[in-house]
Amino acid sequence: MSLTPDAPPELSAVYRGEKMPCFWLLASGIESGWLPQVKPAPGDTLPEGIPHRIAQYWHSSVLPEEVQRAVETMKAHNPGFAHHLVCDESARVFIQQHYGEEKARLFDACFHATMRSDFWRLCDLYEYGGIYVDVDTIAHAPLSRIAAGANFNCMVTYAIGQPWCINNGFFIATPRNPVIHAILTLMFDNVSRFVRTGQFENVWVETGPGVTTMATMRWLAKQSVDHGVSPTASDLIFRPYTAVTDAFNDADMAYKAHPEGNWRGATPTGQKR
């Protein structure tokens, strides 16, 4: 294995397929400057190749008032964008049509609404590109402002914590993007393993920020080691999740107080840990 002198020490372990080094690589890559970040700048434009399209998900075709109000803010502040809101039923139809019955059955195996949203958003984003943003967000400016005039094919946001992770509540990507494909593939593998064996760690790991972080870091490792492509040449770019406040804020909605509206502690049996 040949690594460049500036490669973080965690890169080789990530390349070998180890899990936790993926999260460490994200942290060290950001702190060392090995991973490229969007520089804050004025501007409301997206790179060429990013469709002007916003995708959102709510499990039911009937939205609570607080969710409906939030969705309307997205429409109001992004008038030049097509807006697509799907529910469980329409999401499954899309997955069956574009990915086949096998993947639709994996979608069916997602026992919590958050998992189904995680599953669908990657399928949709890979097929169509554009912007995905969670419904528990209230816009106050165009979402394109978060891009800050940077040039990229895929933007992800990261959160600093224990561990650092890539947030999966906001993406910007081109259609058929290789980073989104890598995340989608690993998520398919996770849900397929759950169906076959019943093995399931938690929603965060299997379909959420955990799989998003692991797949992204492994993709970068393969690009670097197998193809000699540095992150700065990969067309993938990072921003801290705190930067999304340039365009929207997360909302503390009432539905999260109920088990069916909160993924934390959800298990395949529906019981809280």
Automatic annotation (TrEMBL):
One of the record's GO molecular function terms: mannosyltransferase activity
Keywords: Transferase
GO CC field: membrane
Secretion signal, residue range per the UniProt entry: none
GO biological process terms held by the UniProt record: mannosyl-inositol phosphorylceramide biosynthetic process
Listed name of the protein: Mannosyltransferase OCH1
